Amino acid sequence: MAFVEVSPIEEETTATKNVTMGEMGDPVQLKEEGNKHFQAGETDKAIECYTKAIKVCKDKNTQAVIYRNRSACFLKKENYTNAASDASKAIDVDASDIKALYRRCQALEKLGKLDMAFKDVQRCATLEPKNKTFLETLRRLGAEIQQKLKTTFSTDSRVQNMFDILLSDEADKDTKEKAANNLIVLAREDAGSERIFQNNGVALLMQLIETGNTEMILAAIRTLSGMCTGHRARATAIIHMVGIDKLK
């Protein structure tokens, strides 16, 4: 995804402008220093200035601007979690902060949270319906979400088909071995493991174990192992579903 460059030097709200320099002091100066560093390509120094400004700033509107600016820095650093977090803090102050909304959209897309990213850019397009960047992002994300849904449905169908073959009395040995291997490979991928889990896969794998067939038992155990690897929450859920006694 090509990011649309947005300079963090942005006009402050009327409420922010009404705050006197005496009240703001260092936060304003630190923010301006951060802006200069950002424009000079010194992202780390900009983050440092913005962070200091946030700590001493007492005005929520000015603080929101600083969070929004720091979000732009984190986008440049490809630290998408922090970019989304900072943008959210700005949005908490002003739900119509279009720059913060779009930055969060960019970060969320990179984090794979397409539905949430779509909602943010949808809000942006509502606020500025003629903005070509927002409209293009809205179209592209919509297409990506649709493709993801198609892939999910396709994977669900494949998972069910594999189990149908493995639990069938009519399928021949070679067909069952191929289905078992495909299931094991699918379980090694996080997305595949999740689809198996969501499609009653644990119960079906237990049925394979209960057949007493050595090859089916081995395939089921290897699939369960793949589903548990690298995903603590899913592993815990599987242990509870299977039962400790059956794992001994």
Protein described:
The protein is mainly α and about 250 residues long. The protein has two domains: about 100 residues, Serine Threonine Protein Phosphatase 5, Tetratricopeptide repeat, CATH 1.25.40.10; about 100 residues, Leucine-rich Repeat Variant, CATH 1.25.10.10. Helix content is about 80%, strand content about 0%. It is built from 15 helices and no strands. Helix 8 packs antiparallel against helix 9, helix 10 packs parallel to helix 13 and helix 12 runs antiparallel to helix 13. The relative contact order is 0.06. The N terminus is likely disordered.
Summarize the structure.
The protein is an all-alpha fold and 248 residues long. It folds into 2 domains: 27-129, Serine Threonine Protein Phosphatase 5, Tetratricopeptide repeat; 150-246, Leucine-rich Repeat Variant (Alpha Horseshoe).
Give structural attributes.
15 helices, Serine Threonine Protein Phosphatase 5, Tetratricopeptide repeat, disordered N terminus, 2 domains, 248 residues, 0% strand, mainly alpha, elongated, Protein unc-45 homolog B, Leucine-rich Repeat Variant, single chain
Mean pLDDT: 86
Supply the CATH class of the largest domain.
Answer: Mainly Alpha
CATH architecture of the largest domain: Alpha Horseshoe
Low-confidence stretches: 1-7, 11-24
Number of beta strands = 0
Major β-sheet, in short?
none
Helical residues, percent: over 70%
Instruction: List the total number of helices.
Output: 15
Q: What is the count of structural domains?
A: 2
What do we call the CATH topology of the largest domain? Answer: Serine Threonine Protein Phosphatase 5, Tetratricopeptide repeat
The helix/strand order is HHHHHHHHHHHHHHH
First and last CA, distance:
48 Å
Our estimate of the beta-strand percent is under 5%
What is the CATH superfamily classification of the largest domain? Answer: Tetratricopeptide repeat domain
Report the structural category: mainly alpha
